[in-house]
Fold these 3 entries.
Entry 1:
Amino acid sequence: MAIYYQCRQCGTEMGTISTSEAKHRDLGFDVLSRQEQEEMIHVDQAGHVHMDILCESCHEATALNPELHEQKRWVH
């Protein structure tokens, strides 16, 4: 099983961690609210975890354009 990180806006793959390298608690999943977990964490049929987060470029874009936070998806 692996944990895949990708940008939820532009889809850029940001990295992969094998679960032998880290446990969910070590990654901070337990500090996310239930809603954040439902929005950010997805498990595929093979048991791999997919984390939808913001890449640095999309984070900077939202910092410069706060109105983007009002849209669920702004990169098409």
Entry 2:
Amino acid sequence: MSIKSLGYIGVNATELGKWKDFACNVMGLEDTSASLGDEATHYYKMDDHPYRVFVQKSDADGLALCGWETNNQGGLDDVAAALTAAGVAFTWGDEATIAKRRVQNLLSFTDPAGNHHEAYWGVVSDFKALNSPQGVTGFVTGDQGLGHIVLPAPNFDETSEFFIDVLGFGLSDLMKLRFTPDPDEPIKRLWFMHCNRRHHSLGLLELPHPAGCVHVMTEVNNVDEVGLCNDRRIAADVKLTGTLGRHANDHMVSFYMQSPAGFDVEYGAEGRTIDEWDKYEVFESTVVSFWGHDFSVGHAD
């Protein structure tokens, strides 16, 4: 497939300062806004890319877009050709947007559920390592991208077919969920998809979400870093939305917290990678985790 990883995300924010506190003081990201940003857009670095998260001033909080990385212009042209063949409208980036994203070229499109995306190639980087204000030793990125994202997809069939049949994502595993004991509650599907050796870079949940995103996952080098982030979360009084646990599908040891944008951030370590997808068996999980991950805490006052 032409898409190689989740390269960056863009976030809409009513208060840029809240995101700066959350990104730097809780997540441990490096603020690179002084060299890249302006009064309306802030940038946060995780690795040798100039940024992995940008936050732009807006009238509403929520996810703005996902940025998907391709290898080169040929890869981006392949994405354009696939969108054209599927009859999906897209727009090539103008000079100002390309410069702002610090890439060579990009295009923008919207998936059938209304989620906004960009595909791009050629990151402009000075290869400086992360200088985390909280001493985070590093995030697991590289060919696995910044992590994974779970997006709302109320029109599930149309949206899942778009990512698999048009963009070439592979199905990793799936769940069929009910959120109450009522057997008459309609089942909601949750599918996880891959575009590299990370177990999943994309999830689709058959529900709407007011923030335009269910959660974003970032992975650090070890479990101690996860615990240290949870300590910072407690000190900053950031809401816990899922207790520490190990997921059954990607084996990630993680916890969840609410970002200023209204969607959750999963902060984890020890995520599973798959080197030979042709030998991998897709499965259905009936449990979210081997242990932990109590999401009822997110509904408590």
Entry 3:
Amino acid sequence: MKTLVATKLPLVLAVGIATQAWAETPVVENSKVQVWGTQISNASSLLSEDIELKQADHLSDLLRDQPGVDIGGAHSTNQRINIRGMQDLDLDITIDGARQNNFMYHHMGNLLINADILKAVDLQVGTNSVINGGLSGGVAFETKDAKDLLKEGQKIGARLHASVASNDYFGYSATAYSQLNDQLDLLAYFNTTNRDNPEDGSGNESIGNDGEIDNALVKLGLDIDDANRVEFSYDKYTDAGDYAPRADMGALTNAAITDNTVYPTEFERETLTLNYELDLGDAVNLRATLYQNTMHLWRDEALNSRASYRYAEGESVNRGLNLLAESVLEGDSVLHTLRYGLETWKHETERLEDGALVRPEEATSMALFVEDAIEFENGFVLTPGARYNRYKLDTTASDKTFTDTTLGLAAAYPLTDAWTLRASSTQLFQGPNLSEVFSSSTSAANPDLKAETGINHELGVSFEESGVAGLDRLNFSLTLFQTDIDDYIDDEGNGTLENVGDYRLRGFEASVGLSQGNLDARLSYAHSGSENRETGEALSREVGDSIALGLDYYIPSQNLALNWTSQFILEEEYYDKPAYDVHSLSANWTPVSIQGLTLTAGIENLFDEYYASHASRIGDANHPVFGALHLTDYEPGRNFKLSASYSF
């Protein structure tokens, strides 16, 4: 019988991949693996073992070229993950297992994350398993720990890093890591980035970006024995500065509304996690995460003539427990891989004005799930699953309890050693989000409010083979999807919690990758389209068609790695979002003469394109108070970047 699990990964990643019946991609050994990098796994693509060499300072630098994924927002406080046109409010997002779903402020993002410290990013493009929540997939971020950085036999190490960019910031970081004894390991990390106002592709200064980002991470791991490990982490991220009141809108909008007024602003995330891992081989492989994640947004609005207060605050706290286990049972003619667990959390929010509590809200959720990947002797894998959801809302809009049992069924069949067919259908459930935390208004009571439900269908084919067509490796994948969402809630629509109808999303993700000698190439094309089944209206953050090209070339004699990345975004017709293309290059050099030194140089937006991501705010409006506004959130223009790191 074929062995299913060829790669042993941390369970948080392994489950994400393994729950895709077709994601049994063997690991391709890569002699050019970097110690300090981010591994990106995309379940809809075979291009799943990338080690990024980019000097990522925004999630867009890291993920925007992944098929089916876009990152909206140009401002540091406005990082918005978008999968197939749906925003992060409809996705399942975690950092080291801690839930990150918040609706802080419609003019800012809901996620604060430092791309530099990420070890791995597990992308679930589409919800294809009962193990995962969300309406359109999710993202699991995992930060580095000491064991990732220590070389064989090394007991203690450190890394110093500095970077500067022409448009317009600089930063540095320090990392220390140690195997304290046979059982304890420790990592301590600090990063700071100082930003000024960048220029966009037309040379316009983007007022309202002047600030500083600090991130500190401490991780302490304890290997109790070969089977048991406990890990505690404390992660604090602070983004503070003189920021535009509406960070999701372009400089022209803020100039028109406030005459370039900026407000002292502090946006902070504090995450505590306690992870436990149990590895008893096939009998059980378990990961449990106990967490608390706090988001806090503070702003001095002394210059806001329309406000009746000076200091506004919003806080969002998620506390929860995740349990995820896998057991392998071998029968006479089939192999069962059982995955089961639970997710339970409590989400509390509050708005304060000059320290006075204005509006508290809370929601509690519990989900139990189980699925069984049944593999037959001919390689056919059938994965049925079930998930029970219970969600209670306690807000002005509604205090209902919503329950639902959702089912999933996936199948994969290897036509040959290289070709695999796959199909899946997964029912969806998501309770209504809490109200926007930082807004001073309160959603009206809505006794008719319903949970969002639906179903995601996918059909795909994948190919991977070595030594074909004169290449070292060639792979290809195509995924077609249709997602039906009933009673969709547009959280950003009009400030009220209400169902706005049924939506249908359709599209595909296609990717091809090849390796030949020291050259790796990747090409992907993703299309997504959405419509309200009654009105025909598309989702406001619809991306449309995107093409990405990545080229990597390694010169071993010089320890030099080169990268070229291009994106071609086609015109989006419903909202008339314009086409654009952006190209970036980078070089990473590790001189043999100075062991531990790494130099990286690059140019982002090489041709100074004047553009805005289709996942960002785009368009014009005629506001009843402020008049005609050009809302488009333009990205920074050409940016020369240089960084150096030294590890010892």
